[in-house]
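Hi support team,

I've been running sequence recovery on a batch of backbones for a student project. Most finish fine, but this one hangs at about 90% for roughly twenty minutes before it completes. I'm not sure whether the input is malformed or the queue is just slow. I've pasted the structure tokens below so you can try to reproduce it. Let me know if you need the job ID as well.

Thanks,
M.K.
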């Protein structure tokens, strides 16, 4: 397996050498730079997997170096090194894209742990992106069976609908693939990276359905020993699919309408309005 490469940007030559020797023993390929200009020259000559940079450098701010690296090489892991007195700057660096920060004086075991943690986080992100791509491929409109003219027209409509933010009602007999269409709309929409949450409104009693959709606060009813978010909150940033929406009682329809119009919900027994960003796709026979 190819060794991961590390660039250390540190004007303290002794510290840089100690770090370099330690990381080489861990199996990394390591280069060092004593100032920002030299570091950026090396970065543009070859892409490094990991950068360890001091937050204060002789020629430029480490924050500026971070921003330039992230603009040009967004996949590079960057860990900022800082003295205790500059912790606020380190926190700002993380806000601007650094993967983590290390406090001086450095503890080599801590350096190793934080690098491993950043690598694991990056592997998980890559895995999530891969799974997301698989879902998108699985629910491409072309994967829905149907070659007749009416089906081809339906696909064109679905593509237009997916790109919009409109609330959707799917009508069809049981077994005709309403949920498949709903998922296809979601995974071909700008919300594809958000959650897709589904519920069968006809499968729960009305008193449970309200809590399931909107959540509840502690003590709202017998057995409500703790507050719990509803599916509107769980689906925030994504899509909520309401199957058998015609089973909703009139009072729940009013609450649903308010959520659609005002983009806020209120948990059962609660007084606080909670903003939600959810697209509704509903289905009925």
């Amino acid at each position: 397996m190819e060794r991961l490469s590390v660039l250390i940007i540190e004007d303290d030559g002794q510290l840089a050498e100690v770090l370099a020797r330690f990381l080489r023993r861990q199996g990394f390929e390591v280069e060092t730079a004593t100032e920002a200009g030299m570091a950026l020259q090396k970065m543009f000559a070859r892409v490094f997997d990991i950068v360890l940079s001091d937050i204060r450098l002789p020629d430029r701010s480490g924050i500026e170096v971070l921003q330039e690296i992230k603009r040009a090489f967004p996949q590079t892991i960057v860990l900022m090194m800082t003295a205790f007195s500059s912790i606020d700057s380190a926190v700002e660096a993380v806000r601007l894209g650094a993967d983590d920060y290390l406090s001086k004086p450095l503890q080599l075991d801590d350096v190793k742990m934080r690098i491993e943690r950043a690598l694991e986080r990056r592997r998980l992100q890559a895995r999530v992106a891969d799974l997301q791509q698989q879902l998108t491929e699985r629910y491409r409109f072309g994967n829905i069976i149907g070659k007749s003219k009416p089906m081809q027209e339906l696909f064109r409509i679905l593509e237009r609908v997916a790109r919009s933010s409109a609330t959707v009602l799917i009508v069809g007999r049981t077994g005709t693939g309403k949920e498949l269409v709903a998922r296809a709309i979601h995974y071909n929409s700008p919300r594809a990276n958000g959650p897709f949450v589904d519920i069968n409104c006809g499968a729960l009693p009305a008193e449970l359905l309200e809590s399931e959709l909107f959540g509840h606060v502690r003590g709202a009813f017998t057995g409500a020993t703790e507050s719990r978010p509803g599916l509107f909150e769980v689906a925030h940033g994504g899509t909520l699919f309401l199957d058998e929406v015609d089973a909703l009682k009139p009072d729940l329809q009013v609450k649903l309408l308010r959520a659609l119009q005002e983009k806020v919900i209120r948990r059962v027994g609660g007084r606080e309005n909670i903003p939600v960003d959810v697209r509704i796709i509903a289905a009925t026979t």
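--
Follow-up from support: It reproduced on our side and the slowdown came from queue contention, not your input. The two ends are 55 Å apart (CA to CA). No action needed from you.
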